[in-house]
Write a structure and sequence with these properties.
By secondary structure, the protein is of the alpha/beta class. The chain folds into 2 domains: about 130 residues, no CATH class; about 55 residues, no CATH class. Helices cover about 35% and strands about 15% of the residues. Strand 5 and strand 6 form a beta hairpin. The relative contact order is 0.15.
Length: about 190
């Protein structure tokens, strides 16, 4: 594949939900990254199911396996680093891992609130892997990448997509929003 070297390429994906992710899609994602060598790679979040961290009723299988999920995530990010080592890599905070972990350590278990080892970036070894964890990412003041809505203070559990649409009416940016398990990514354009 021939890519114009003067063009900055952003490659994005999200909602892998390991361990229920589709390994074929992962292979395709890696091949695309290898072929196009993007300048920026944005993981829209929810890479891990993190069921064991949720407040929902769980099966025995869902109660265990946290280290396996973290190890798999490390291997995934390492494989991306190998095929595109020079890319800037961004992981967006999300509801399945970031929010559940925060709730577990800060709201429900005060004793864990200051344990740096339990911070998401440390559990996922993001500094070691050269990935930056962000609530949202704004590209050239024109496109905002965000997992859902909650971090922006406009979220709603009942109709989060409507919150993004309302936000777009007042914004000068387009929004790339993940969190949609049906389509994977939603794009809301704002034409000025």
């Amino acid at each position: 594949m021939i890519v114009n070297k003067d063009i900055e390429i952003i490659f994005t994906f999200g909602d892998r939900h390991y361990p229920s992710n589709d390994k074929r899609i992962d292979s395709i994602i890696l091949q695309i990254i290898k072929d196009i060598k993007p300048s920026i790679i944005i993981d829209g979040g929810d890479g891990l199911d993190g069921d064991m961290l949720s407040n929902f009723d769980k099966t025995t299988d869902q109660l265990s396996g946290f280290q396996k999920q973290l190890d798999s995530d490390y291997e995934w990010r390492e494989s991306i680093n190998k095929v595109s080592p020079k890319s800037t890599k961004i992981l967006l905070e999300c509801n399945h891992f970031s929010a559940r972990l925060s709730k577990l350590t800060k709201k429900n278990n005060y004793w864990a609130s200051d344990l740096r080892v339990l911070e998401q970036k440390n559990l996922q070894k993001l500094d070691e892997l050269d990935w930056e964890l962000m609530e949202h990412y704004i590209y050239k003041n024109s496109i905002m990448y965000v997992h859902g809505d909650g971090g922006l203070g406009v979220g709603s559990n009942k109709a989060p997509i409507n919150q993004v649409r309302a936000m777009m009416k007042e914004s000068t940016m387009s929004v790339v929003r993940y969190h949609s398990h049906t389509s994977g990514i939603e794009i809301h354009r704002n034409y000025i």
